[in-house]
Write a structure and sequence with these properties.
0% strand; 2 domains; 7 helices
């Protein structure tokens, strides 16, 4: 792979990678770091990645890097990072998008990742399976369970409004 082909890949996929990572971790700086690490790993392995698999490779590396960061942070929890507003309950919702994001945040990490890859990024089940390292049937089950939870959560929120 030439430098121009690599730069073209950065132009094509960096925004999508950034959005995917940012939706999962909600931290702009960490999302930028993960995307940068992803492209660094891609540069190191550029000769082993075929041009037809670049997008899938990038999302796979970004997903695994994201999981590593999340696991590392769970072990290193810090009380200073706790936000006081997370202890308060908001009784009135004005934005459905906000409610949807809140519902997505309540999903387990695996379900959240496959839902975002499928519904936000538009990947097929087999591509999601390849990116996450799950089987295609696991992906389908996680998407089904995630959507079922989201539906139940959104309906219960509507009843409260």
């Amino acid at each position: 792979m030439t430098v121009s082909e690599y730069n073209n890949s950065v132009e094509l996929y960096s925004d999508n990678l950034y959005r995917f990572v940012l939706k999962n971790i909600k931290d702009v700086d960490k999302a930028k770091d993960i995307v940068q690490d992803t492209f660094l790993k891609f540069w190191e392995k550029r000769d082993n990645v075929t041009s037809s698999k670049i997008k899938s490779y990038l999302f796979t590396v970004a997903y695994h890097t994201l999981i590593d960061v999340v696991r590392r942070e769970k072990k290193q929890g810090c009380f200073i990072d706790v936000k006081e507003e997370s202890y308060s309950v908001q009784t009135e919702y004005s934005d459905l998008q906000e409610v949807l994001h809140e519902a997505i945040e309540k999903l387990p990490e695996d379900q959240k990742a496959v839902i975002l890859l499928r519904d936000y990024e538009g990947y097929a089940y087999d591509e999601i399976a390849e990116i996450t390292g799950m089987t295609e049937s696991q992906v389908k089950v996680y998407i089904f369970r995630g959507r079922k939870f989201l539906k139940k959560y959104l309906v219960s929120v509507e009843a409260l409004i």
